[in-house]
Amino acid sequence: MKIPLKYIARNLVTRKLTTGITVAGVALVVFVFSAVLMLAHGVHQTLVATGGTDNVIITRKSSNGEISSIIDGDTQSIILTLPYIAKGANGQPIVSREPVVVINLNKIGDGVSNVTVRGVSEPAFALRPQVRLVEGRMFAFGSRELIVGQAIESRFAGAQIGDVVKFAGDQWKIVGKFEAGKSAFDSELWGDALQLLNAFNRGNSISSMTLKLERPEAFESFQRAFEAEQRLNQFEPKVERKYFEEQSEFLSLFISVLGIFVTVIFSAGATIGATITMYAAVANRTVEIGTLRALGFRRRSVLTAFLLESCLLALVGGTLGLVLSSLLQFFRVSTLNFQSFAELEFSFALSPQVILSSLLFALAMGIIGGFIPAVHAARLKIVNALRGA
Amino acid sequence: MRILRLTIRNAFRHRLRSVLTIAGIAIAVTAFGFLRTVVTAWYSGVEASSANRLITRQAISFIFPLPYADKEQIARLPNVRSVSWANWFGGVYKDKSQFFARMAVDGDTYFDVYPEFQIEPDQLAQFKRERNACIVGADLAQQYGFKLGDIIPLDGDIYPGHWEFVVRGIYRPRDKTIDGTQMLFHWDYLNERIRQESPGRADEVGWYIVKIDDPARSAEVSDHIDALFANSRAETKTETERAFQQGFAQSGNVIIGGINFISFVIVGIIMLVLGNTMIMSARERTREYAVFKTLGFSAKYIATMIFGESLVLSIFGAAFGVPLTIGLVKMFEQFVPKAWFPVFYVEPVTYVLAATAALLVGVAAALFPMQRAMRTPIVEGLRFIG
Amino acid sequence: MLPLIRIEGVSKAYRRDSFDIPVLNKLTLDVAEGEFLALMGPSGSGKTTLLNLVAGIDRPNQGRITVGDTDIAALSETALAKWRATHVGFIFQFYNLIPVLTAYENVELPLLLTPLSKAERRKHVELALGVVGLSDRIYHYPKQLSGGQEQRVAIARAIATDPTLLVADEPTGDLDKQSAEEILTLLDRLNKEFKKTIVMVTHDPRAAERAHTVRHLDKGELI
Lengths: 389, 386, 223
Prior knowledge:
The structure holds 3 protein chains of 3 kinds.
Chain A (H helix, E strand, L loop, with lengths): L4 H10 L1 H35 L4 E6 L12 H8 L14 E4 L1 E7 L5 E9 L2 H5 L4 E5 L8 E5 H6 L8 E4 L2 E10 L8 E5 H7 L8 E5 L6 H10 L6 E5 H8 L1 H36 L1 H10 L3 H28 L5 E6 L4 E6 L4 H28 L2 H6 L2
Parallel strand pairs in A: 4-9, 6-8
Antiparallel strand pairs in A: 1-10, 1-11, 2-10, 3-4, 5-8, 6-9, 7-8, 12-13
Helix pairs in contact in A: 1-11, 2-8, 2-9, 2-11, 2-12, 9-11, 9-12, 11-12
Chain B lengths: L1 H10 L3 H28 L1 H4 L5 E6 L7 E2 L2 H6 L4 E9 L13 E4 L4 H4 L3 E2 L2 H9 L3 E5 H7 L6 E6 L4 E13 L9 E4 H11 L6 E2 L1 E6 L5 H12 L6 E5 H10 L2 H32 L1 H10 L3 H37 L12 H28 L2 H6 L3
Chain C lengths: L2 E14 L2 E14 L3 E5 L6 H9 L6 E6 L2 E2 L5 H11 E4 L11 H6 L9 H14 L15 H13 L5 E5 L7 H16 L4 E5 L3 H6 L2 E6 L2 E2 L1
Parallel strand pairs in C: 3-8, 3-9, 6-7, 7-8
Antiparallel strand pairs in C: 1-2, 1-4, 4-5, 9-10
Helix pairs in contact in C: 4-5, 5-6
């Protein structure tokens, strides 16, 4: 295309108001689009950070989440006889037997929500190296004490160190705060598993069992051994990371579907805005187009020039939208995850895919919006164009 | 009338541009209407609440059960008309993605307490006679093709094991604001089996539904009930059904907040698209407006013309957008299982809001060009080439 | 001397809505190389149409137009575009400069269609602007120039590719007396000194005076 790029760029700058409005429209759409993608990615990232690849979590097959899963004592014993379970320094298998429940707490500000309370055993910390105590102290096993994840500590009333949470007919004191590498565990309260089982009168029926494999590659063999055991057919093992990933599936999907559905609709609106702008640009430059054609520039060059103008407009808008949405990374969002039925904090996460998708999306708007006006410009007859018609 | 005709003709002077503008507005109105419908659906539980029902549940968490014995004490309180109860069964039907509400309820009282679930008397009677009978909502029956006599197998999670229920009744929701996708069976049946398989968990109720005489006394009765069980192992929290539903709806606050925010963004986009058009068309006609002024028409007249054109476009946009919203909602209903969004329809308020938004936008978009047209001196206007 | 331009039996009609309005009727005309021809006539006489046909920006319904040894009416659109770039220079009444390009860039525009390198283009541009006497204003935008100056830039653009034929449509129509005079002097020079063949449409009798030959058109026919 022989028409110089500076012609295209300068034309955009000349009609500042209409260019500005169209860019704003595209920017808004790309902002929403990328924000939604970032949110879905953020949920995914949080849950992926939650699980390790050499840990296996075992839950009841038909359960939708840990809180509706029940594993009785006998089953637990059977599971411990399986091969490939890593052993700790003391020769004991690295296994955490965890009852998981959900309690109501008041949010700071307004409203109530569900918070996960997880009973853990000593090996839990070996299993989850990303968990670190950052304030206060660890709860004492055998006592009714809890430690609180940073997301809960910052968002819920009565969940700070020193506070007492009342449930299961007893008072539980929060003695420490932990961070868990921006994973789902950040949104939990942890206590002694045995104490929790006792308080809820659950005998020794836990919700889930998490164990460490000798090697991550051993999972398939472990799974085969598990499935071969008839008495375990109501339960299933999953790589911990995969389990938590699946826990976010519905939420991610919901956000993505709703968001993208909506964005596609708006993009139609923004594209129409771009089309109107480009049509006006063509209409205003009819004489110019005639002159260029008279000078010998071909129809194809005129088409390409206007199409590029539209694309440039869209890319500027798209970049602006992305810049704005990248600011969202400073915000952390907390909402109820349907599958676990508890609060989950996550953030807007930017990734190369999000950036690429957003820019391509903007570009698509530019191409679709600018195409017909560009064709219109190219098809003008020289004499008519020169007359300004 | 002449100005009206002139205005309409001017609005469509540039047919393609006008069509595009109207399309842009229509699309944005549709998106706005659709999102509001999603928000409405989210709060449908709240809206469907009855003023004379209270929900009593475990204070610390909805997922912990209450003793069955509590029922007697609650029923004896003054102002309490009747007490029913239910347990959330959960479990899996076929696979984990087939979601709908599955609950064990007290067969004798549940349908009295929920008159909006309308059922044929003989179906109800048959249901009461059989231990493992169940009643399903009409919308659920339609989704899965359940008929009377069909067997619905479930795999329990909270209540492990394989369960089978026979469909003996199909309830019709009283109106479209009521959930028609629930599956209800006998609490007695559940309890019997639990007593055999894990006796430690028998005689436990998920929550109580308390029907009261006088809605004005709901706070009083709630406090009474909670006082009965304060300091016991299972403290209760009693609230109106509305407050209870609100608690659930609120949990999605962030997402709903996000959706509302997006609705505003949409209105912003409509404004931009229409504003863009109005500015452009007014600008092109700068010389023309100057000529009008030389002929003796006042600046106000011209401003009114511009205003009228903007309104014409936004009215057309709204007129197309509203039926499109309905179409979109219907399409959504086709593709998404009814049980996921049991109540999904366009509220009358939404139509009003969408139309108002379009009109307001029409006004706002005209302001800048109106002002410009009024202020430009005749001589400058005549010189304008564009 | 061989005619540079041969117009043989050319007819042209325009479509307005569904009407066919005849403009030129079997017109025949020769233009010699190096000639400075003025076409005059009342409005609607077809003079601009004739000019458009000669310049290759419109096609006749009937007849043949040969410029040099090319039958331009028979060329494809692509070929015609290519031909225009190197064989014709345009001068319009309203200058038709691209407002977002500087004087330099405007003059360079037709050169972008040739295989010349950037350095070579620069030489041509500077030369053209020198001929029209605007070497000191090359980085100005059209809106920073007076009418006369704009027209001179337009002329520089017209001669930048060194075409044999210059086509001018009311070149002085929008200029004041003095600027018009300057432009006409320039055209004269291009014709006498640089041997350009010029076909000019004009209303202005003073402009016609400067041409060698004046032909009149009325109702699509030479009179």
